[in-house]
Amino acid sequence: MNLKKISEFLLNFKKKYIYLVMFVLISTPLVLKRTQKTYETKEVKSIYQKIEEIYQHNQDNPEDKLAIFISVDFAPSTKAECDPMMNAMLRHAFLRDIPVLGWAGVPQGIDYGLERFNTIAKEYNKKYGEDYIYLGYAYPFLQAALSLGTDVRIFSSTDYYGKDTYDNYPIMEKFNNYNKLGLFTSITGTSLAEGWIQYANGLFNQEVAAGVTAVNASRLYPFLQSGQLVGMMGGLKGAAEYEQMVERLEKKEIKKDIKNYLSGLYKNYEAPEDNPRKYDTSYTKTELLKSINSRKMARQGMAAQKIAHFYVIALIIIANIGYLLKKRYESRR
Amino acid sequence: MGLLAWTTIGVILTLAIFSFLIKDNPLYKFAEHLFVGVSVGYLLVVTYTQLFIPRVYQPTKNAFNSGDIFMSIWMIVGIIIGIMFLTRLTEKHNWLSRYPISITVGFYSGFAIMPSLYTRVLRQLGATVSEDGVSMINLQKIGLFFKNPSWSTLYEATYGPLIVIGVLTVLIYFFFSFKNTNPVIKYTRKPAMVYMMVGFGAAFGYTFMARISLYVDRMNFIINEWWPLVRVKLF
After folding, report:
1. Residue B127 belongs to what H/E stretch?
2. How far is A68 from chain B (nearest CA, A)?
3. Do B21 and A139 touch (CB under 8 A)?
4. Distance from CA of B129 to the nearest CA of A (A)
5. Strands A181-188 and B130-131: what pairing?
6. Which residues of A touch B103 (CB under 8 A)?
7. pTM assigned to the model
8. Chain B contacts of A156, Cβ < 8 Å?
9. Cβ atoms of residues A204 and A69 within 8 Å
10. Which residue of B has its CA nearest to A110?
11. How far is B47 from chain A (nearest CA, A)?
C-alpha cells in the first residue's frame, strides 16, 4: 500500500471542491424544505414560560397589565440567527395579546427592526401605538437604559415616525418604565445584552432575557447561572427551540391552517381612519409565502446545520488520518 | 416587479461576495465597495433622522415653543458642549474638545463602575458560593449520589463543586505574584488549563455554528425567498 500517495490525497483536497460539497450539502435540506425537530433546553423554555406568566398576570389583572420590551440590538449581518428569535418572540407576545415596545440599539438595525415589528403585527391584526410601538434608535445606550427607570419618553420623546410619544400613543401612557415591563429582551449580535444585564437588571432589578448569536452565547452562561438572566436563546439552536414552542402555541390558539388564517385575516376589513395601520391590510401571494417560510426558518437552518457539522467532523477525521499516515510514512523513510 | 428586481440584486451581490472563495476578482471588489459606500450613506441618514432631529432639534424647538426657559437653556448648553467636540478639527481651538471629553468620560465612568462591579464581580461571586440559597458544595447531594448512583444524581453532586473548583483554579492561574514553583500555583495549572480549554472549545463550537448559520441564511435567501419570488412573478 502506498502510504505516501494516500496521505497526499487525503491532505490535498482542493479548497473549491470542499466548498462545493458544503454548498450541495447545505442546499439539499433547504430545497427539500426539511426541518429539524429539536429538544428544548431549560434556558430557552424559561423565556417562554416567563412570557406565559406575563400573559397569566395580564389575564388576572386587566387593569394592571405588563408589557415586554424588545431591543433590536443586531444588524442585518447577524439576521441569520437573530431574526428567527425576534420573529418567534413577537409572535408569542402578539398571540398572547401582550403589548410590545421596541427600539434598535444599533443603527443598522433601525429600519430592519421596524419592518419586522410591522410584518409580525400584521399577522395578528395589531394596532401601532395601541398594541405595539417602535421608538427608533436607542442611542446613547446608557441614557436609553436609565430613562426606562423613570419614563422612557424623556429619552424617546418621538417614536420612529417622529410623532410625539406623549400625546399620540395610548401604549406609551400605560407602559413607559421598568415597573410596567414584565420582561426586557435584548436580541443581539453584539455585547449589548451584557449592558442590559448591567443596567436594567443590576440597577433596576428588571428581569432580562437575551437572544444572542452563537458567538456571544458562551459569554452569557455565567449570567444565567447567577440568575441575572431569565433565559437565553443561543444561536440558531436557541431560535429553533423557541420557534418550535411558538408554533405549538399558534396551532393551539389559531386552530386552522396558517395559510388559510392569514388569507382570511383582512377579508372584508376596512381600516379605521383614526388608527391607520402601518402595513397593507391584505396579503399578496409572495407575502404569504414569506410569512409561512419565516415560521420554520430556524428549524430549516438547523437541518442544514446538522449536515454541515457532520461534514466538517468527517473532514477533520479525514485530515487527521492523512496526518497519521504521513507521519508513519516519514518515520519509515 | 420592484421587489423581484431588488431581491435579484441581493442574490447577485451575495454570489459576488461568495466568488471570493474561488479567488479575488473585480465582482467581489465591486460588491465590497458598494457595501462600504451604502453603509456609510445609511449611517449618515440615520444619524440625521434618528438622532439629530428627535434628540436635538425637536426637543429644543419644543422647549422654546412651550416657553420652558430652564429646558431651553439646558438644551442650548448641551448643544454647545456637543459642538465643542468638533473643535478637534482645528489646530488652534482643539483644546476646547477636552471639556466635552472630560464630561463624557466622567459621566460614563461614574455610571459604569458600580453596576459593573455589582453585576460582573459581586453577583458572580455570590453565584459561586450558592445557587437559589443552596451551597454550591452540597454534601447532601454528594451523599445522595453514593446512596443512589445515577447520571442525574452524579450531575447534581458534581455540578456545584466543578464550578467552584473551576473558578478558583482559573483565578490562581492568572495570579502572577508567586513563582511557578509554589505548590499551589504548580498543581492548579493543569486543571485550570483543562477548564480554559473546555471554555475555548465551547466558544469555538458556538462560533463555528454561527458561521455556518450565516451561510445557511444566504442559501435560504436564494432558495426559499428569491426563487419562489421568481416563480410567482415570472411563471
Report:
1. helix B123-129
2. 22
3. no
4. 10
5. unpaired
6. none
7. 0.91
8. 54
9. no
10. B46
11. 8
**What pLDDT digit, counting tens, does each position of A77-125 carry?**
899 999 999 999 999 999 999 999 999 999 999 999 999 999 999 999 9
ipTM of the complex: 0.87
What is the mean pLDDT of the segment spanning B50-64?
89
| CA-based nearest distance B115→chain A, Å | 6
Q: Is A162 left (phi over 0), alpha (psi -120 to 50) or beta?
A: left
Cβ <8 Å between B215 and A26:
yes
Indicate yes or no: CB of A235 within 8 angstroms of CB of B206: yes
Chain A partners of B159 at a C-beta cutoff of 8 Å? none
Q: Are A157 and B58 a contacting pair at CB < 8 A?
A: yes
| CA dist., res. A217 & res. A287, Å (int) | 32
Q: Report the alpha-carbon distance of residue A287 to residue A56 in Å, rounded.
A: 32
For residue A207 the three cell numbers come to 428581569
**In whole numbers, what is the pLDDT of chain A averaged over residues?**
92
Question: Is A199 at the interface with chain B, CB within 8 A?
Answer: yes
Instruction: Enumerate residues 168 to 187 of chain A having a beta carbon within 8 A of any beta carbon in chain B.
Output: none
Residue A81 has its nearest CB partner, among B131, B210, B228, at B210
Place of cell 449589548: A192
- Please tell me the distance from the alpha carbon of residue A183 to that of residue A259, in angstroms, as a whole number: 31
Q: Is there a contact between B217 and A26 if contact means CB atoms under 8 Å apart?
A: no
CA distances (Å), origin A257, targets A164, A263, B3: 39, 10, 27
Cis omega (within 30 of 0) for bond into A99: no
Burial class (CB in 10 A: 0-12, 13-18, 19+), A163: middle
Neighbours of B104 (CB within 10 A): 13
pLDDT band per the 50, 70, 90 thresholds, residue B218: very high
Q: Is B139 helix (H, G, I), strand (E, B) or coil?
A: helix
Distance (Å, whole) CA A321 – CA A300 = 32
